[in-house]
Design a protein that fits this description.
The chain is 42% helix and 13% strand. By secondary structure, the protein is of the alpha/beta class. Helix 1 (25-33) runs antiparallel to helix 11 (256-274), helix 6 (120-133) runs parallel beside helix 7 (153-162) and helix 11 packs antiparallel against helix 12 (276-290).
């Protein structure tokens, strides 16, 4: 059993990464159904929360069926982060996570997200301010360093543990790498095996199959893995990893019928949570991933991203289910992963 404060997670938990414009309640629901043990909201600007920005406040929406769930915030000012932490407290999540990993310019170059990696002293002060301002367990998500000349994650882990964080998730890339190249888990393993480190260490980056999850578990000794892009349009990766850990066997990929049913559920929750117009518009980014691998799907996909009612979209999804009934998908999810340029930190 893994513990984060008073939160009890199963041995080797699977975490859904916080991804901007992806990890909303509808998406989290289908991931939870398929075995995600701990999930996070999209990251929320501390300044936005304080200003009562509508989009920032909406991201605080969490539901009982998601638990345990964490709310993730970001910012570069101690007072703003501390005030945001107090606001988050009221919504009663299971934990509060600080984003020190997002590499996109609009965040990192304004001294937040991965930008804080250039100033470890500031990172410590920001973290301490949040820990002192909330009753919730505080965790951190970050990267190996700013660039290849500043790998500082070992120092970061020790110092953040010293000011009270309860777990650390590490993406195996620097800010300079963005999402390019391969994640380097070597330093993640060093952090985990540092005798000074007593908190759970979760690894993140390039986990795209059950085999890789188990390989990295055994090689680097991490307490669990965090999955981001590989879950987009393929929430079944969580159940596949769990099954492989338990039995050593690879589950067959989901059937066409199951893919359509989950896609419909995702759409319905999107409509309920966001309303008709925004729900339909924001769901469009997911269809390509749900249908990835199907031959001659272009015309159907074009309909899905142009129709404007849930009824019409469901009718097209039914057409797809009939046309491709019995289609055999690839045995692994590796080829189903799309490059995602937003912020799966």
């Amino acid at each position: 059993m893994i513990k984060i404060g008073n939160i009890e997670l199963p041995e080797f938990p699977l975490l859904l990464a916080p991804m901007e414009d992806v990890s909303d309640p509808p998406f989290r629901a289908v991931c939870k159904d398929n075995g995600a043990d701990l999930m996070y909201t999209e990251f929320i600007s501390s300044e936005g929360l304080i200003r009562d920005a509508i989009k920032s406040r909406q991201k605080l929406d969490i539901f009982d069926y998601e638990k345990p769930v964490g709310i993730q915030i970001f910012g570069g000012d101690e007072d703003s982060l501390a005030m945001a932490a107090k606001i988050v407290d009221v919504t009663n999540p299971d934990l509060l996570d600080i984003n020190f990993g997002c590499p996109v310019k609009k965040v990192a170059l304004k001294g937040a997200g991965a930008g804080v990696l250039k100033d470890v002293d500031l990172m410590v002060r920001l973290t301490k301010a949040v820990v002192k301002s909330t009753k919730l367990p505080v965790t951190v998500k970050t990267r190996l360093g700013w660039d290849e000349n500043s790998f500082n994650i070992e120092e970061v882990a020790e110092r953040l543990q010293d000011v009270g964080i309860k777990a650390l998730a590490i993406h195996g890339r620097t800010r300079a790498q963005m999402y390019k190249g391969s994640a380097d888990w070597t330093l993640i393993g060093k952090v985990k095996n540092n005798p000074r480190i007593k908190i759970p260490i979760f690894g993140n980056g390039d986990i795209d199959s059950p085999q890789k999850a188990v390989e990295y578990k055994n090689r680097y000794g991490v307490d669990g893995v965090m999955i981001g892009r590989a879950a987009i349009g393929y929430p079944w990766i969580f159940r596949e990893i769990k099954h492989y850990i338990k039995t050593g066997e690879i589950l067959p990929p989901p059937t066409m019928e199951e893919r359509i049913l989950v896609c419909k559920k995702h759409l319905q929750r999107s409509l309920e949570w966001k309303g008709q117009l925004i729900g339909i518009f924001e769901m469009r980014r997911h269809y390509t991933n749900y249908l990835k691998g199907l031959p001659n799907i272009k015309d159907f996909r074009l309909k899905l991203v142009t129709l404007m009612t849930g009824e019409e979209i469901n009718a097209v999804l039914d057409e797809i289910a009939v046309k491709y009934a019995g289609y055999e998908f690839p045995k692994t999810n590796i080829e189903l992963i799309n490059y995602h340029e937003k912020c799966p930190v």
